[in-house]
């Protein structure tokens, strides 16, 4: 029984030309003669005319050899074009020497009439060689361990399920790294289909990335790789092909229709409630993209629980709306209407009454209540559960997708071509015992210092821009106060909803968002430049370094304004007569004060504007921009007959998915993760907004990958990489930030201290809290530069005699022996805040570590499978070698054997009953 059923073809390396005989090799960038339309590329095979070829064909003209990769280029009649021609000649000649087979489509047959397409096919020998080099895992035995199915109620889960053929397009096998010298050891039914298209294009790209384009006598090691040829314009594009059009399956029965299945079952928006076909995504796009969508889907699923709890907390705030005693006192004309507040800025701000903040006080209670404390603690535990359960999910995927121990393989075997080119030094690798390029330590230190200095400079630039926004807030607040001075400083055309504080906060948040977008655009290019300058060794190291740089920048860029409102605004304002000024006493910019209802509502406003704005802008950028570019680029194709618009031309008109495309997808989600964890105590609805966005995000990304982008080169990744450490760091920091938000930004602790220690009467009550929380200042003691202009004071102030005003603080009144110094209640509240922070952090961290300890990172089922697979590999390899040795000895002794030992083993592994004749 022979499992090697692939056809024995003559794999003579032939480069095919266009049917246009008038077009010579010199004209289109090749050093090989053109073939006439009647020539047969391989013995026994006839060439298929392009007009008769299927529009979705992914084969050479012989209809047999599959196209694994496509390169495109255009004619250039300039002097630089001659250099490009020479580079193409040498590059393609070297590709032929490696063993690849090439076929060129003439520009006269392209839809734009000027683009050549070089199609690449990889024969079995080349695939086997590089599969051995890359240690690609392939099946050697059907999995015999019963899979553990989670108990689910089928009637409830059925609406969310996809067909089994879509969810699991391949059988479950035990796998082992491919060895070219042990082909009989593996389950090979057909050599042509043994390696899937994603593996084939990964191998081709590995060759293209390392193939030189210099002549042998020159040995210019800097002239190497398709990436440099794309950068210098020698080629215009390099991409693997999609297998068919996304809106209908392929007509060719020998070709898969996986793209169509992905679009039908995954990319359509109305499939948002369905599970994702992760195995099909992995099979079509590779493990790296599959891991991203697995993580995004799991994150979205876990957000459901956080969103439900956050919504409950918000509803609790709505139901307790009427029980808000302090807001009732603020709005009461006899209480809040009689309290005169001190001016909030110098000269341009007049005196005002407390009841002017009635609406903002009610709004603040929606988020600043007891439910907020519970939700902050819940999110600290939720984030731990999310990370721990993701580790288990990731461990399962690592095994199912043959990614166990992959990191060592990538570190040792897949050096970046740029590293190999730029590092001229060589040293012995103690692991592989082979000479490898390396970068001297002095050069590493110099590059690291330059990189670190650049990052610090840009972070300082962000802080400088944030200070500029703060200065804007301080300057504009006075202007808004002057405009809105009538009718208790409210804008009459909009009623009583807009206050100077709200107008300042909204406009400053919008300006800050624009600055964030501009700095992002600039820094992305700087981060890529300095990462390239560091010359990382492997692709994994490159991505990790770029990830850390981009995240630190984005962290400061997106979160700095929220940190300012949460932890700095209103904390360093001083008191009447001794206010604190920005940039010292030389400026007239007095530090901002919080609304009497607290700064929490302003933090909520800031969070909503930045978070929601980023999500809306991100979805527009991800969906609309690629669609517009593709529509513009393919508009000419609609004028051509359908038969002329080939598979490679259709894909050429799509957008290119860059090497860092997935990086930006992760970055977007991790920044969102920071918003819903770091500041969630101020806005319990943040997880709900994130959930709604992610439901759309999954389908937008799926639609974009399936319809708007060329097929990415398949790549392996055993995890989400450096993002996992970043998520862990954000999770730990979130416990601290939420504890400080509850303690210092909200009014929760001062209210509790008043309720239990300073309430009037014998029973605890919140009556009188507002009067207790405001200190008194003698108006006659105001310095001249703090006094408001006479024209800025309201009419009611000039008609009555008012001698004192109130301000938000806990200080002794005028006439006290320690007047205007902090009262004992201030220190009690401060002690309660610090105690709350310590208790909350310890409770959450203890629960986090207990949960992490209780939940193992790797499921027991996966551990058993890994051990079983390793045992079988050792056992089968041992038996394989023993049987092979016995066969050799028997043949050398003149013995006769009826059946090949390797064939018998293959039959046993497939559980096939056969007789050896």
TrEMBL record:
<feature type="transmembrane region" description="Helical">
    <location>
        <begin position="550"/>
        <end position="568"/>
    </location>
</feature>
<feature type="region of interest" description="Disordered">
    <location>
        <begin position="1"/>
        <end position="54"/>
    </location>
</feature>
<feature type="domain" description="Anoctamin transmembrane">
    <location>
        <begin position="281"/>
        <end position="869"/>
    </location>
</feature>
<feature type="transmembrane region" description="Helical">
    <location>
        <begin position="500"/>
        <end position="523"/>
    </location>
</feature>
<dbReference type="Pfam" id="PF04547">
    <property type="entry name" value="Anoctamin"/>
</dbReference>
<feature type="domain" description="Anoctamin dimerisation">
    <location>
        <begin position="59"/>
        <end position="278"/>
    </location>
</feature>
<keyword id="KW-1133">Transmembrane helix</keyword>
<feature type="transmembrane region" description="Helical">
    <location>
        <begin position="670"/>
        <end position="692"/>
    </location>
</feature>
<dbReference type="InterPro" id="IPR049452">
    <property type="entry name" value="Anoctamin_TM"/>
</dbReference>
<feature type="compositionally biased region" description="Basic and acidic residues">
    <location>
        <begin position="7"/>
        <end position="29"/>
    </location>
</feature>
<dbReference type="Pfam" id="PF16178">
    <property type="entry name" value="Anoct_dimer"/>
</dbReference>
<keyword id="KW-0472">Membrane</keyword>
<dbReference type="GO" id="GO:0005886">
    <property type="term" value="C:plasma membrane"/>
</dbReference>
<feature type="transmembrane region" description="Helical">
    <location>
        <begin position="292"/>
        <end position="319"/>
    </location>
</feature>
<dbReference type="GO" id="GO:0005254">
    <property type="term" value="F:chloride channel activity"/>
</dbReference>
<keyword id="KW-0325">Glycoprotein</keyword>
<comment type="similarity">
    <text>Belongs to the anoctamin family.</text>
</comment>
<dbReference type="InterPro" id="IPR007632">
    <property type="entry name" value="Anoctamin"/>
</dbReference>
<dbReference type="GO" id="GO:0046983">
    <property type="term" value="F:protein dimerization activity"/>
</dbReference>
<feature type="transmembrane region" description="Helical">
    <location>
        <begin position="826"/>
        <end position="855"/>
    </location>
</feature>
<keyword id="KW-1003">Cell membrane</keyword>
<dbReference type="InterPro" id="IPR032394">
    <property type="entry name" value="Anoct_dimer"/>
</dbReference>
<protein>
    <recommendedName>
        <fullName>Anoctamin</fullName>
    </recommendedName>
</protein>
<keyword id="KW-0812">Transmembrane</keyword>
<feature type="transmembrane region" description="Helical">
    <location>
        <begin position="370"/>
        <end position="390"/>
    </location>
</feature>
<feature type="transmembrane region" description="Helical">
    <location>
        <begin position="456"/>
        <end position="480"/>
    </location>
</feature>
